Amino acid sequence: MQKYLELNIKIEPLQPWNEILMAELINIGFDSFTEENDGILAYVPEDSFSEDELKNLWLLSHDEVKISYTIQEMPNINWNEEWEKNFSPINVENKVLIRAEFHESQNTPYEIIIQPKMSFGTGHHATTYLMIQQMLDMDFSGKKVLDIGCGTSI
């Protein structure tokens, strides 16, 4: 499993510099980010990281922004497994239950069983919930239905 480093970066003022910094970090190997109230958390594979490249970023020497950072090694964690452990079922109006195989069934007319694996369409996004809610009021008898990415990817 690949080791990652986390940069905890404080940016003052935050806007618009956080987006500019993320663009610069992508160019030197960073591949994921979490936006925070006072900066960003940036992640890079340990074997791709060069502190010299980081220190040479244009934004770090820019007078209009104050940036500080700390670097720490991330533990090797299976993030899919961690996310899946915390996946909670979705119940739409006590009529549709969206759940993983490891959740107990509930007494609902419809049940959708998924393998979440951080996939799109787990029911947690508002558009998915709203589309299912809307579909409950529709008559699909004798009709063919095609999901073309309207928020019901489950």
Characterize the structure shown.
There is one protein chain. Helix content is 21%, strand content 27%. The protein has 154 residues and is of the alpha+beta class. It folds into two domains: 70 residues, Alpha-Beta Plaits; 55 residues, no CATH class. The strands form two sheets. Strands 2-3-1-4 form a four-stranded antiparallel β-sheet, with helices on one face. Strands 5-6-7 form a three-stranded mixed β-sheet, with helices on one face. The protein is elongated and about 65 Å long. It starts with a strand and ends in a 19-residue tail after the last helix.
User: Describe the biggest sheet?
Assistant: 4 strands, antiparallel
How many domains would you count in the coordinates? 2
Our Rg estimate from Cα atoms comes to 22 Å
Could you tell me the CATH topology label of the largest domain: Alpha-Beta Plaits
| Amount of helix | 10-25%
**Helical stretch count?**
4
Keyword list:
single chain; 154 residues; alpha+beta; Alpha-Beta Plaits; 2 domains; four-stranded antiparallel β-sheet; three-stranded mixed β-sheet; 4 helices; 7 strands; elongated
